Predict the structure.
Amino acid sequence: MNTAQRFEFESEYEPQPKQAILHRCPANEILYGGAAGPGKSHALRQEALYWATRIDGLNVYLFRRTYPELEKNHILPSLAEFPIGYARYRDQKRRWEFPNGSIIHMCHSQHEKDIFQYQGAEVHLLLIDELTTFTEFMYDYIRARVRCTLEIPEEWNHRIPGIICASNPGGIGHEFVKRRWVDYVEPYAFRRASSREGGMLRSYIPGLLEDNKILMERDPDYIKRLDGLPEPFRTAYKEGNWDIFVGQMFYFQRDHHVCAPLPIPDNAQVYMTFDWGFGKPYSCGWWWADADGRLYRFGELYGWNGTVNEGIRQTDSQIAESIIEREIELGLRHINKTPTRKVLRLAGHDCWAKKPDYKGGGQGPTTMEVFARYNLYFSKGDPTRTLKIRQFHERLRIPDEGRPMVQIYNTCKHFIRTIPLLQANSNDIEDVDTDMEDHVYDEACHIFMARPITPRIKPKPQSSYEKRIDNLYKGGADSYERMAIYEQETTMEHLQPGAVESLDAEEYEDGMMFSTMGE
């Protein structure tokens, strides 16, 4: 009996439809992700077992971020699933050894620096569970160890060497995982990554709880427990929505906050907001306000080089020229660069700071001094971080009726891309993590602070006493006592028609109030 026959005979694994799609996928850099419960971890272990029993001398590396997670989610389940009579688990080395020389390494990397212990590894098949718990650097580093000197049969060399990852939304790596798979390739499709990002063939396989028929049959109440979670946990874990995740700073929903471009009313005030950047991206936004105070972002200019959080390194004069060119495109200037309408401009305080003059010595002109040469004049935005984050939340708040107080044209790709990905600062949950790509956020806050809105608080329900006072002011009763007795008689008549002839003041629900007033 050969290795493959032995595996097929001993394995009781029957993949469910989504798991089967994963196992048949021809890509070699795969993300199987989304909701909780579709059987992602189980599928990863079976991939490890499948290839380890078919290719002699294969090195499979299966990762979780911490050892307790690795033990609970993979080591202990593998002891029950893997063929003990055929393979052997070495507890001290944390690996499965097969008689054909293949090894499944059970790995973890709790701290980012721990990833360096795999520097010399030759990884033939890399499996990472809960990829969003890893940083982008950790993933790129261990991916660089994926290589193969074995002679792989032609029918399998599209998968080996290869990478398969599984993950829910949320976590420190959410942004790069969403960017590299969810936003990069359509579900179930295939797309080659750039050489700068490894050049592998990517595929994204979304997983939902409903895909796991076994779990749904054996524990039908599990979905109810997910429904009982507060947001954003419920949507992230149940629906696998990559726009909503645990740790998200702002609740941004495309259905509510994004709109198709609208014509700008002639009498609407137009604003421009600016956040400076050189090594990091700079961000410009153009807005107009309607009669209700609702803000519409209708244009933007983002100074990046195409890599996340890396600036295009333009000088202030180059930025000014880019702003003017963008305003021509937006119809805010004629082709000869003269304005077609007035624009109020806001920028951060750092734009008024002097910069070193590296060529002539001393201090060079400020950003605003350079912009003034191009007739671009700005006012200082309010930099108060605690207040601006409140205004941001208030603008994004989804009301019971109508649209939120900020609308983003669907052409403003960088606002739509970066705002949902922002996470709270681990040291101050009331602030944004400034290590993330927060430039659009900082820029947009200028207009939110310039046009603040009062937090809308639902009015407290009126007590019966307050309602009676209001009715007295409205008229229709010649005394407080008469009004109170009338209300009580009306209520009793409704409950028992014909039973009420008159009601003494002393019998009213507020006690002896009326007899005291009448004396």
Summary: Residues 3-226 form a domain with the Rossmann fold fold (CATH 3.40.50.300). The longest strand covers residues 295-303.
